[in-house]
Amino acid sequence: MKFLRHFQTELEPGTPVSEWRLSEKGRKEMQKFVRENNFDIDIVYTSTERKAVKTARRIAEKADAELVKTELLCEVDRSGEGFVEDHDRYVNLVEDYLNGGKKADWEDQEEMRERFHEFIEMAEGNSLAVTHGIFLSLNVPEYEKVDFWHELGFGQIVHYDF
């Protein structure tokens, strides 16, 4: 299965993270990515978050593939913490979360893993899933979670064999 992390977002502190849009840079990189790649896929699964749906829709159109939105692919729910303006603090919270810590009021890791496994069970056919960085870092087992999160770029494809 192939997973794609959405492209760069525009930070919108007063807006829930799930509603953030792609930044200008993210839109341009997404358009270039879609234009320069041929997608031999039948289904594009996507998180229901705006930044993922925008990318998934473009890929599905180009590939003439079915588009399936699912909350199973949404990013870890961080709404209990809200927007973290200080970047260093945010990085520390993510690292702590990926290492099993509980410094932030974020979605329980076990619940997130259950969503991932439920998605894997429902996914079918030759498909691509558009999702998020922390989600992938927690669920793709062949990588060290924190290192993977630091190295995972916007618009990067990750292969996962299950």
Essential attributes:
162 residues; alpha/beta; Rossmann fold; 6 helices; globular
Helix-strand layout with pairing:
Layout (H helix, E strand, L loop, with lengths): L1 E4 L18 H13 L6 E4 L3 H14 L2 E4 L17 H12 L10 H14 L4 E5 L1 H7 L5 H7 L5 E3 L3
Helix pairs in contact: 1-2, 5-6
Instruction: Please state roughly what percent of the residues sit in beta strands, choosing from under 5%, 5-15%, 15-25%, 25-35%, 35-45% or over 45%.
Output: 5-15%
Radius of gyration: 15 Å
CATH architecture heading: 3-Layer(aba) Sandwich
Overall SS class: alpha/beta
Shape: globular
- What count of domains describes the coordinates? 1
Main sheet properties: 5 strands, mixed
What does this protein look like?
It is an enzyme of class 5 (isomerase). Its EC number is 5.4.2.11. It comes from Candidatus Nanohalobium constans. Pfam families: His_Phos_1. The chain is 41% helix and 12% strand. By secondary structure, it is an alpha/beta fold. It has one domain (2-159): Rossmann fold (3-Layer(aba) Sandwich). The protein has a 5-stranded mixed beta sheet. Helix 2 links the parallel strand 2 (43-46) and strand 3 (66-69). Helix 1 packs parallel to helix 2 (50-63). The protein is globular and about 45 Å long. The N and C termini lie close together (8 Å).
Please provide a brief summary of the model.
With 162 residues, this protein is α/β, with parallel strands linked by helices.
